[in-house]
Amino acid sequence: QLVESGGGLVQAGGSLRLSCASSARTSSNNAMGWFRQAPGKERGFVAAINWSGGSTNYADSVKGRFTLSRDRAKNTMFLQMNSLEPEDTAVYYCAVARGSSVTRHFSGYNYWGQGTLVTVSS
């Protein structure tokens, strides 16, 4: 029900834009978010956006470099990632929250995509 796209290989300092397409039934009144999981590490919070797109929250590690937005008419969420660093290398997962407000907590999400790999070379 969630389909991520936009991952790939990029050099440090470069940019990528991830997309997450969902169905209206799944996400139209819900907050959405991105998490990422690097090899050997737990899945961690990246960014989240509330149901209307009017409120966002970012992990400190990506604040100022990543921008999250959503197009409710197209049921799609976008993560613009700039100034990428090798430490950003991970599988990125989009998710739909149980509620309408922003949440950073893994347990607050009940729908997950399959993930898209982002690799940043130094």
What does this 3D model show about the protein?
With 122 residues, the protein is mainly beta. It has one helix at residues 24-27; strands at 3-5, 8-11, 16-21, 32-37, 44-49, 56-58, 66-71, 76-81, 90-97, 109-112, 116-121. The strands form 2 sheets. Strands 2, 4, 5, 6, 9, 10 and 11 form a 7-stranded mixed β-sheet that branches. Strands 1-3-8-7 form a 4-stranded antiparallel β-sheet, with no helix packed on it. A hairpin with a 6-residue loop joins β4 (32-37) and β5 (44-49). The mean pLDDT is 96.
Would you summarize the structure shown here?
This protein has one helix and eleven strands; from the N terminus they run βββαββββββββ. It is mainly beta and 122 residues long. The strands form two sheets. Strands 2, 4, 5, 6, 9, 10 and 11 form a seven-stranded mixed beta sheet that branches. Strands 1-3-8-7 form a four-stranded antiparallel beta sheet, with no helix packed on it.
Give the distance, in angstroms, between the N- and C-terminal Cα atoms.
Answer: 34 Å
- Tell me about the biggest sheet? 7 strands, mixed
Number of helical elements: 1
Outline, from the CA principal axes? globular
Q: Give Rg in angstroms.
A: 13 Å
- Tell me which oligomeric state these chains represent: single chain
List the topology elements:
Blueprint: E1 3-5, E2 8-11, E3 16-21, H1 24-27, E4 32-37, E5 44-49, E6 56-58, E7 66-71, E8 76-81, E9 90-97, E10 109-112, E11 116-121
Parallel strand pairs: 2-11
Antiparallel strand pairs: 1-3, 3-8, 4-5, 4-9, 5-6, 7-8, 9-10, 9-11
